[in-house]
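step: validate -> pass
step: tokenize input -> pass
step: predict -> running
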Amino acid sequence: MFRKFFKKYLPSHETIRRNRFVALFGERLQHHNLWHLHRRSVAGGFAVGLFTGLIPGSNPVQFFFAALFAVAFKVNLPVAVITTLYSNPFTILPIYVAAYEIGTFVTGGTSNGMPEVGLHLMDKSIGEWGPALIEWVVSLGKPLLVGMFLLALLLSSTGYFAVRAGWRLFAIYEWRKRAKRRRQKNEQNMDEMDGDSG
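step: predict -> pass
step: emit ->
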């Protein structure tokens, strides 16, 4: 089931290899764990994607680092790259708020909430949003950086163990389901044999 799901929604090996950012890795992309769908490689790829999804920058930057870490740790590369998409324009603000609160707690600062966003984006053109947002993020300083790193570690370790546990539970469920079908088939065969002999 898990393998069918991933094969259905993940890009093919060849599509990933043709990507210009991934192509920088060349022959290093030949390791079988980068492409095989088994519990360890998928869980590792998920953890890498969760971690690198918090690296500041656009998706191509996160894709690059996800591919780099996947190759370094020999975990599933497509899973790592796709998982980075959890960090997107719709989710980034809550993620930054959570990271800032974690960072403030760890660094011993006092949190009165995040500094006010002085962007007034409705008054700015789209071209001015980027620099204004970067200026605001920089104003958050050390608490945000520390919080982002700790949140990335927390998400990646939780994701790794959750995928491994989910994969294991699903494998047990499937094994029991097959065993039950075999028992029912054997019982049916025995009943048929008893009927023939009677």
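step: describe -> The chain has a mean pLDDT of 80.
step: cleanup -> pass
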